Amino acid sequence: MSTLRPDLAIIAGTIPAGARVLDVGCGDGALMAALRDAKGIDARGLEIESANVASAVARGLAVVQGDADTDLADYP
Question: Does residue 16 belong to any structural domain of this protein?
Answer without folding.
Answer: yes
